[in-house]
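Incident log, structure service

09:12 report received: a user says their structure output differs between two submissions of the same chain.
09:20 pulled the input from the user's history:
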Amino acid sequence: MIHAHLGDSYDAVKRTWQELLVNWAPLHAERRFVPDDLQKDFTKLTRIPMLPNHSPTSYSILNDPDTGIRLPGERNQSEGRKHIRMKKIAAQLRNGSQCVVTFDQSTYRHSKLKRKEQLQAKMRWLANQGLHSFYYVSHAPFLFAFPDADALQRVYCILKNAGIPQNRIEKLTS
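09:34 re-ran on a clean worker, output below:
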């Protein structure tokens, strides 16, 4: 999260995710992506509290890197506020999160894969780890990842019942 971007349309989408997940597994923001001096304003705007040190009973995580998710197998696997690695998302799911929602606007131009193929590669990597996922595809794309198929289906139904068009959801293809 960059100071200048607080309040942009992406934050409205994040608030939507919070409102849709609140009764199932409330969304909490991963602190490392929201600078300390922005956390209060971020929570006020999106209604997404920071992830506490001790995980709640049932919860979801919002990862909000500035750019998005690194492609699996990329040589430059550094992390910071700009990027997150697939391994970190998998670890969050294995540590008890019911859903991990990650902002992902990254498109690697040096990759031989086109944008849609890059999304598929990330979902395929998760599937190979025994995890499940889909993408919300829009001007503000988000990867939704889950520890099991039941959680995926539950959130898919929540989004569908909220009016999210099916063509905005991209699932893993074989």
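09:41 both user submissions now match this output. Likely a transient worker issue. Closing.
09:42 reviewer note: The chain has one domain: 3-171. The mean pLDDT is 89.
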